[in-house]
Amino acid sequence: MAECNALRNIRHRNLVSIITACSSIDFQRNDFRALVYEFMPNGSLDKWLHGVDRNMSLGQRVNVAIDLAHALNYLHNECENPIAHCDLKPSNILLDNDMVAHVGDFGLSKFLTQPRHANQSSTIGIKGTVSYAAPEYSLGREASTDGNLYSYGILLLELMTGKSPTNNMFKEDYNLHKYAEAALPDRVLQIVDPSLEEENLTEDPNNRRTIQDELQRRAECITSVINVGVACSNHLPHNRIRITDAISRLQSARDNLLSARKRRNLLIKFKLFECFFTHKLKMCLMICKNNLDKYN
C-alpha cells in the first residue's frame, strides 16, 4: 500500500487526508484493500477545466496554482524524506467546498532518501501519465523533485490555456510547453482559455479607466502564470525554477490582480454610497417642503 505509506506521516492543508484504511477479502476470496479519503465536494480539477460547466474564474485558477505549489514545497522541502508524486495531473487534484486544492492519489509516489535530482539513473521505469511526465523519465532517470516540477509546470499551462497536453494538436515534438512558450510575451491572450475571456466585467462609462486597469492586470497575471509554467516545464531539469521561486512569483501575480479589483470595488462602493446619500437628501428636502406647505 504505497499510498498509505506515503500519507501516514504527512499533514498539509493542500494534501488529501486519509480518514482510514481497511483490508479484507472480496467475494472471490481475493485480497481487498481500500482507502477512505476526506470527501471533496467540488470534485477534481479536471472537471472544472474540461467539463461541461467550465466556469472557473481567473482568481480561482491562480489560487489553485498557489495551493499546488505549497503542496509541492511541503513534499520537496519540509518532509523528513522528500516525496516525488510521479502522477501530478488535473484528475488527481481535488477541490474542497472553498475551492482549495488538495493533491491526491499517491499510489505512484516515491520516497527519496535525499532531495534527488534528475541526473540519477534507474533501471526501474517510472509509471505515470505520459503527457505530464518529465522527459528525462523516458531516458531511465529516477523519480525526482525535478520531475514533480515539470508536471506542475504543464498543469499551470493547462490552467491558463484550458488545453490538455493530450490535445490532438500536440504531436511528436510539438507539445503544450512549446505552444505556450511561442506565445510569450505578446500573444498570451491569443492562447488563453476562452472561458476566461467570458468573465463579466461590468461596464461603467464613468469608470472606464478602472475597467481598463483591471483588464491590464488580468493580462499581466495570466502572462506571469504562463511564464512560471514554462519555466517549470523546461526540457532540461537543471533549468527549471525552484518551487519556492514559483510561489513567490505566483503570489506577486495574485497580489497585483487583487489590487486592481480592490480599487474597483472601493469605487463601486463609493458610487453606491453617493447614490444612496443623494437619494436620501432628495427625500429629506421633499419631506421638508411638504411640511412647510402644510403650514402655509
From TrEMBL:
It is found in: Cell membrane. It comes from the Eukaryota. Its EC number is 2.7.11.1. It holds the Pfam family Pkinase. GO terms for cellular component: plasma membrane. It is an enzyme of class 2 (transferase). GO terms for molecular function: ATP binding; protein serine/threonine kinase activity. Keywords: ATP-binding, Cell membrane, Glycoprotein, Kinase, Leucine-rich repeat, Membrane, Nucleotide-binding, Phosphoprotein, Receptor, Repeat, Serine/threonine-protein kinase, Signal, Transferase, Transmembrane, Transmembrane helix. It is a single-pass membrane protein. Its main location: membrane. It catalyses: L-threonyl-[protein] + ATP = O-phospho-L-threonyl-[protein] + ADP + H(+); L-seryl-[protein] + ATP = O-phospho-L-seryl-[protein] + ADP + H(+). This is non-specific serine/threonine protein kinase.
